[in-house]
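For concreteness, we quote verbatim a single protein encoded this way:
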Amino acid sequence: MPVYTKKLVQISIPLCHHKYTMRLREFNQLEQLLESFQSVTWTLYEEPEGDTVVRTASTFNLNDFDALVTEKFKDFVEWKKLKLDAYGSKDYPMNSRAPLGSMVPGLMHAGLTQDVSVFYKIHGRKPRYLDIYGLFRHKDIGIGNTPNIKKQQKYAKVFSKEFA
């Protein structure tokens, strides 16, 4: 065991994300503390397959996109049926201060290509629902390099009426 010279030592244990602060006189309990964390077992429970219901909005149209986007969309749906994990690095919730995020709570979007994203929402349990609002180019929905608030508000109204 290393020699500690400070009077106050902080121990970070990455598995549990708790920090414990110990005084020098408490070091005799350090080994007992570490042993208790090493004996903890973690179990990951995954939901069984087939519990996800995929619903698409009435305005959803996949025919406007090429084969690459169609293939990525099918891959996205299969991914979300099995896992709740992010589909790549561009899968995250909409900003709750923007029109799309504030008018449709829980709305997410995942980038399928550099310019096309799928807008969706996951909710419920047994069955879990995957509500797909549509595939949009960033410029068309108003979230491109030059944001268009009016377009965002228009789509937020349309989205809020779906799946009611």
